[in-house]
Design brief:
heterodimer, A: about 290 residues, alpha/beta, Rossmann fold, Alpha-Beta Plaits, 2 domains, 6-stranded mixed beta sheet, 11 helices, elongated, B: about 160 residues, mainly alpha, Arc Repressor Mutant, subunit A, two-stranded antiparallel ribbon, 6 helices, 2 strands, about 5% strand
């Protein structure tokens, strides 16, 4: 069962297409990371997923229903943590709890209070006096207090110091361990992605450039260096299994999605194969120097 | 913490955990019957996805390194007497082949390889209870079950 399915989704802002035929699925009970450079279409995809924006074409199904007509009950089954953690700044945490308990049927106030105490957030504290890390924790705890089936986190580590990021990570890890919640998150912190994700979907130019399990990526994706100054990198990309090829000091650096695709390049010239790339190497290798297509 | 992982290393995290647990058992840091941390505890300790820890425990259970007791958790099993001598011999052969191939490509000769293996065994042996010297035999090397003399009846 998949908790989220995007199928050939298109969306433009004004004249500019931002999401251009995006398809991917996030399996239930797993953690899927949505990665990509700024402007790759991550935020728009999340807005559509939550039903705040409609796709111009294609379909998005969330927990088995079209995202554009999620009813109240389904909406409550999705815990959403936006990147800016918007709460009423003048309120105390106790008042925020009051508001949430009054507006969300599934909201478990006792659970929220217990979690807040665990992380040391005082009910008397005013939201405006909380650090960014504390606000992030508050948002996540509130989202989780309705026992969601799906948790959507938009860049939960944004602007947090390493300790605050780790604390946020721990809240998510505990939830995963206790409830088996499905999670979709975006992040630019690739070491967090390595820690947390079962699957990664890399967005580029509004499409899924790569959609694979993290273990599969690590086991299969490989990179090497082909010393053939006369070859054009673009001609290599037509070969099956090649993910990226770019010119570098007297040759071409290549990434392939399996070792035999990489090995087959040896027929074109001297090939050096490197150690398996980390997610960071891979991300940089795939997405830096990518030309913007029109 | 007896288990260290590196989220940026190319080796999948679940495999790093498997290796870490196996190394801790081989070094005597974990002993037969010791209880491993629960999935939740270890996931929190290492700050990683509990699914990854569960996958590693599944793999270790499959390999017979640990056993899962319903409701009680996972325990170090030590060596698996149930596993047939043949299966163990085959597994070891695959590992030694890989070692020999890697050593060749590192430009090491047989003497280097033997010396390195002796060195590793000594290092493990001083921390644990590996019987030394190890018997020169092609039967499985198993710290918990010293190799028994061959049974002549089964050879005929």
């Amino acid at each position: 069962m998949d908790s989220i399915v995007f199928q050939d989704v298109w969306r433009r802002h004004g004249d500019r297409w931002v999401v251009k035929g995006l398809s991917f699925a996030a399996p239930a009970g797993q953690v899927t990371a949505l990665l990509g450079r700024n402007g790759a279409g991550k935020s728009t995809s999340i807005q559509m997923l939550m039903g705040f924006l409609r796709p111009h074409s294609g379909s998005i199904r969330v927990l088995g229903h079209e995202s554009s007509d999620l009813d109240g009950e389904l909406r409550e089954a999705i815990g959403y943590v936006p990147e800016d953690h918007p709460h009423f700044h003048g309120m105390r945490i106790a008042q925020v709890l009051e508001l949430e308990a009054g507006t969300r049927r599934r909201f478990d106030r006792g659970l929220a209070e217990a979690r807040l105490a665990e992380v040391g957030l005082e009910k008397r504290a005013r939201v405006s006096n909380l650090s960014r890390g504390m606000r992030a924790q508050l948002s996540i705890i509130l989202a989780l207090a309705a026992d969601p089936k799906l948790l959507v986190l938009d860049d939960p580590g944004l602007g947090l110091d390493p300790i605050a990021r780790r604390e946020v990570l721990e809240v998510v890890i505990d939830t995963l361990a206790d409830r088996g919640t499905s999670v979709l998150f975006t992040s630019h912190v690739l070491s967090d992605v390595e820690r947390l994700a079962d699957r990664v979907v890399v967005l580029h130019e509004g499409r899924a450039y790569l959609d694979a399990s993290l273990d599969g990526l690590r086991a299969n994706v490989c990179h090497g260096f082909l010393s053939t100054p006369e070859l054009e990198p673009e001609t290599l990309l037509r070969r099956p299994g090649l993910l990226s090829a770019r010119r570098r000091r007297g040759g071409i650096e290549v990434y392939a999605d399996n070792p035999s695709a990489l090995g087959s390049l040896a027929e074109l010239g001297p090939l050096e194969t490197g150690p398996s790339p980390s997610l960071e190497d891979l991300f940089l290798g795939l997405l830096s120097n990518q030309r913007r297509s029109a | 913490m007896w288990l260290q992982i590196d989220p940026l290393a190319p080796e999948p995290l679940f495999r790093q955990i498997c290796q870490g647990v196996k190394a801790a058992v081989a070094r005597g840091r974990l002993k037969e019957g010791d209880r491993l941390p629960s999935v939740r505890e270890l996931a929190r300790e290492l700050a990683i996805n509990p699914n990854t820890v569960a996958k590693a425990y599944g793999e270790l259970e499959h390999e017979g390194v640990i056993v899962r007791r319903q409701g009680a958790g996972c325990f170090v099993h030590g060596a698996d007497p149930e596993r047939s001598a043949e299966a163990r011999r085959l597994h070891l052969q695959r590992l030694t082949e890989r070692l020999a191939i890697e050593a060749f490509h590192l430009g090491l000769d047989h003497a280097d390889l033997r010396a390195a293996l002796e060195h590793t065994l000594e290092a493990l042996g001083s921390a644990n209870h590996v019987p030394a010297p190890l018997p020169s035999t092609n039967l499985p090397l198993d710290p918990h079950h010293p190799v028994a003399p061959r049974d002549p009846r089964r050879e005929s």
